[in-house]
Amino acid sequence: MKKSGDSGFTLIEMMVVIAITAILALIAMPSMKSMMERNAISGQVNSLIGTLTLARAEAIKRNAPVIVCRSVNADTTDSPTCAGSGADWKSGWIVFMDRGGTGDQYQPVQGDVLLRVQGEFTNSGGIEQNGFRKLKFRNTGLLSAGASQFTFNTVALTASQQRRVCVLITGRTRLIDNDTDTCE
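The structure corresponding to this sequence follows.
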């Protein structure tokens, strides 16, 4: 026997499905935002650790000092400069071999060689460094001014998602991925 009639969804069935989908989306939104912030911090941490590893290796390989400094014009000019003040590294940084021996600024006319440029992080809650504005790696791979610490914050400033990168006097890095441990 054949059943005759229209097949499809009723308006009530469609509204129930839309309501359930909206509720599930609202439940998932906070965890999605948290995941996006964790991924942003992870990318920033990896970028800094890669930069510091490169700087240390280049100092040893080239037998010359290599400087990593915060820059506010890293990706907007052909001749980036080290920032004179401030502690937030989310604006970017540069890495250069200091052939001129000044250590203050990247000066291509003095023979300095630009090794890496990192532009601004727009999805950062801040990358704060304790104390120094730049890191100078000697030709032995050691830091010339002592250990340093970088603290990476999320946009929401959630302490549990905060990450710290410790740069030891030996030039090696260590990651702290909780809000209670310190570099000391």
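The first helix runs from residue 11 to 62.
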